[in-house]
């Protein structure tokens, strides 16, 4: 058996408190764990919730990948040019201060319901955290690494791919972590205020018709999906590209 | 003998400093081993960076094989004071880096890299990450990474200064053997008097104001006997030079 960890207590602890408190209320007001589990089974059989989950994850991945690619490109230019960096600074500060989902109503007016405004919210939410980290990564590249590469014959795009890129990846991945958390939360919120699909919409809709079990199920899923993405995408990404930065 | 490196009236100052190097004039013969010796902060690294093409805004003329130096090139191999190894690559991939950048075909490349890693005694560590190596091993990787590309000119900036005495001795010995075999023209920056005398054909003495004080020819057979009286004479002479530099530095402060 592996070693005992305090973290094993956390979820049972919450389940017990939840059961105890919810037992004081009728289940249509405050459903307990068993009610939510039953709800999950029946939703699974209907298949509708699964579609909402797929819709949300699809938006998240498309938006996030687009955003990360753009942030990398802009970040590399900004890291290389002081003028461009100075130009970007007020924009970054401004967008960092605005909650991304505040843009959702405008984007929905502009782009209609459906995937486009949601993807736009994700891009607004994650672009700047990744950008800032990429710029920081660029600023911390030791000059001797660049010189070493040049005197070994690296030029132009090879210098970019084989030196600049690996140098900035650890910082960029920190940005990806932050951006990922913000964009997931913003997506759900945006779906709640103006969507017709997605996990956020599922929660908002069930709230309106007074289905408390579904609302709680949706909330639990948001957290589990984030954990799931962390294990499936972010951790392997970090392991593959940035573990050297932790060791050295 | 042809001179590969030729400096005429070279002066240089960083953007925010007045002048670091003044009227440097010397030339270096093919296949020779030259050291640059001087007190800390006198501009030794700066001079080496100029020759490597890292600082193109100098005045005067620096030529390598008759061509003016304008930018870094694979013909000037450089080993950095801080080594500048790539921490995201293994030992093998670090050594392979230059050949890869120069589009050497995979087959040839791998043979050369393997041979070079064997030469520096790190075969067992080929697939190790840089962070898992000791200081002396890192030093060997840095040398191997540069040597494998067979540069016409080898520039070494205090490559052994961070090492313990034993490792330093071993690596100096290896460098000497290597230079005897391959005969790459080498410029070594050091502030170790012994290292300079033990390895060099010529020593350029750089004073603290950034000008060449003297160029000393070391006329002793290699490998050199550190206890011989000639060796000690050179030692005394260079020690005297460094001591005077320190004194004039102190007077400058007062
Ligand atoms: N990038 C830089 N920008 C401005 N000044 C610099 C820079 N690099 C070095 N200097 C200055 O130039 C002078 C010479 O520095 P340099 O590194 O060439 O000395 P050095 O002889 O190699 O010293 P050490 O033996 O300590 O390595 C020093 O006064 C230093 O402060
Ligand atoms: Mg130096």
TrEMBL record, chain A:
Keywords in alphabetical order: Cell membrane, Membrane, Transmembrane, Transmembrane helix, Transport
Keyword Transmembrane helix: yes
Domain ABC transmembrane type-1: start-end pairs: 53-233
PROSITE patterns linked to this entry: ABC_TM1 (PS50928)
Example of a GO cellular component annotation carried by this entry: plasma membrane
Membrane-related topology note: Multi-pass membrane protein
UniProt-listed Pfam families: BPD_transp_1
Primary site of residence: membrane
InterPro entries, alphabetized: MetI-like, MetI-like_sf
Stated name of the protein: ABC transporter permease
């Amino acid at each position: 058996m592996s070693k005992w960890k305090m973290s094993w207590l956390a979820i049972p602890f919450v389940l017990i408190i939840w059961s105890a408190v919810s037992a004081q209320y009728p289940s249509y007001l405050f459903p307990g764990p068993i009610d939510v589990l039953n709800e999950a089974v029946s939703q699974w059989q209907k298949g509708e919730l699964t579609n909402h989950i797929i819709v949300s994850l699809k938006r998240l991945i498309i938006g996030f990948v687009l955003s990360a690619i753009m942030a990398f490109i802009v970040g590399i230019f900004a890291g290389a040019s002081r003028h461009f960096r100075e130009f970007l600074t007020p924009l970054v500060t401004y967008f960092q201060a605005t909650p991304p989902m505040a843009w959702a109503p405008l984007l929905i007016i502009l782009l209609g319901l459906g995937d486009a405004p949601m993807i736009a919210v994700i891009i607004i939410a994650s672009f700047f955290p990744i950008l800032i980290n990429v710029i920081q990564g660029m600023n911390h590249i030791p000059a001797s690494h660049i010189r070493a590469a040049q005197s070994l014959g690296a030029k132009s795009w090879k210098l970019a791919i084989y030196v600049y890129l690996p140098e900035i990846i650890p910082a960029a991945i920190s940005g990806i972590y932050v951006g990922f958390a913000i964009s997931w939360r913003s997506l759900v919120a945006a779906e709640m205020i103006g969507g017709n699909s997605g996990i956020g919409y599922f929660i908002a809709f069930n709230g309106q018709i007074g289905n408390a079990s579904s609302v709680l199920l949706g909330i639990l899923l948001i957290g589990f999906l984030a954990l799931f993405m962390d294990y499936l995408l972010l951790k392997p990404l970090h392991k593959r590209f940035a573990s050297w930065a932790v060791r050295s | 003998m042809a001179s590969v490196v030729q400096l005429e009236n070279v002066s240089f100052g960083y953007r925010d400093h007045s002048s670091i190097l003044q009227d440097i004039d010397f030339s270096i013969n093919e296949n020779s081993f030259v050291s640059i010796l001087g007190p800390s902060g006198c501009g030794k690294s700066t001079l080496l960076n100029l020759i490597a093409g890292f600082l193109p805004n100098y005045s005067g003329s620096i030529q390598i094989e008759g061509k003016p130096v304008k930018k870094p090139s694979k013909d000037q191999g450089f080993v950095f004071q801080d080594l500048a190894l790539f921490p995201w690559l293994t030992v093998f991939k670090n050594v392979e880096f230059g050949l890869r950048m120069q589009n050497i075909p995979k087959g040839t490349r791998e043979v050369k890299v393997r041979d070079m890693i064997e030469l520096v005694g790190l075969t067992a560590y080929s697939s190790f990450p840089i962070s898992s190596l000791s200081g002396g091993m890192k030093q060997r990787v840095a040398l191997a990474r540069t040597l494998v590309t067979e540069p016409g000119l080898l520039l070494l900036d205090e490559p052994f200064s961070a090492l313990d005495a034993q490792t330093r001795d071993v690596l100096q010995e290896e460098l000497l053997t290597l230079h005897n075999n391959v005969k790459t023209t080498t410029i070594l920056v050091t502030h170790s008097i012994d290292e300079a005398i033990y390895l060099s054909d010529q020593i350029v003495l750089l004073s603290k104001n950034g000008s060449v004080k003297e160029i000393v020819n070391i006329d002793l057979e290699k490998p050199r006997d550190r206890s011989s009286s000639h060796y000690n004479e050179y030692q005394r002479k260079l020690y005297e030079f460094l001591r005077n530099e320190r004194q004039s530095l102190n007077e400058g402060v007062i």
